[in-house]
Amino acid sequence: MCGIIGYVGSRDCVQIIQSGLSKLAYRGYDSAGIAVCHEGDIDLRRAHGKLENLVARLALEPMRGHTGIGHTRWATHGRPSESNAHPHRYGRFAIVHNGIIENFLELRQELIDRGHTFASETDTEIVVHLLAEYYSPERGFAAAMHDALRRVRGSYAIVAICADFPDEIIAARQQSPLLLALGEGENFAASDIAAVLAHSRQFIFLEDGDIARITPSSIEITDISGKPVTRAPKSIEWDISAAEKQGYPHYMLKEIFEQPQKITDTFRGRILEEEGLVNLDEQIAAMHIEQSKRLQIVACGTSYHAGLLGKYVIESLARIPVDVDVASEFRYRNPIIGPDDCFIAISQSGETADTYACLKIARERGAKILSICNVMDSTIPRASDATFYTRADPEIGVASTKAFTTQLASLLLLAIHCARAKNTITKDRAKSLLASLRSVPTHMESILAHSDQVRAAAQKLLRANSFLYLGRNIHYPIALEGALKLKEISYIHAEAYPSGEMKHGPIALIDDRLPVIVIAPKNSTYEKTLSNLQEVKARGGRLISIVTEGDDMLTRVSEYAFAIPDCDELIQPFFSVLYLQLLAYHIADLLGNDVDQPRNLAKSVTVE
Ligand code: AGP
Question: I want to staple 595 with a disulfide (CB 3.0 to 4.6 A). Which of 65, 250, 314, 503 is the partner?
Answer without folding.
Answer: 250
